[in-house]
């Protein structure tokens, strides 16, 4: 593993390519326009958030802490509302949703001290 800033940059690029560019074209580029047919933007966003949360269920116990499941799912639905708003206000452009999807974990690594209590670390993982 690369130390410090160089390692962080590698992680950002990896997450951007594998997650941001992997999931967002599917969530916002494919599913969202279809969910918007006959629904309000809020209803479509919440349905997409629920679907997104269900998609990640296999990662509980591996990457996500099961104890934080409900707060995490609520966060995913809020994220879907924000990214839907961005997508609608940029005429369907995926750049901002991709960057937003990439940002939370990478920015947290810059702002969280290396030694944190188990509760704070669990809370940070749920976001």
Characterization of this structure:
- This protein has 127 residues and is an all-alpha fold.
- Helix content is 75%, strand content 0%.
- The protein contains five helices and no strands.
- It has helices spanning 4-36, 41-55, 69-89, 95-111, 118-126.
- The longest helix is centred in the N-terminal third of the chain and has 33 residues, at 4-36.
- The two termini are 24 Å apart.
- The mean pLDDT is 77.
Radius of gyration over all CA atoms, rounded: 15 Å
| Poorly predicted regions | none
Distance between the termini: 24 Å
Average pLDDT rating? 77
Structural class: mainly alpha
> Portion of residues in helices?
over 70%
- How would you characterize the largest beta sheet? none
- The share of residues in extended strands comes to under 5%
- Mass-distribution shape: globular
Order of helices and strands: HHHHH
Number of helices: 5
Topology, number of strands: 0
In summary, what is this structure?
By secondary structure, this protein is an all-alpha fold.
What is the element layout, followed by pairings?
Elements: H1 4-36, H2 41-55, H3 69-89, H4 95-111, H5 118-126
Helix pairs in contact: 1-2, 1-4, 2-3
Keywords summarizing the entry:
127 residues; mainly alpha; single chain; 5 helices
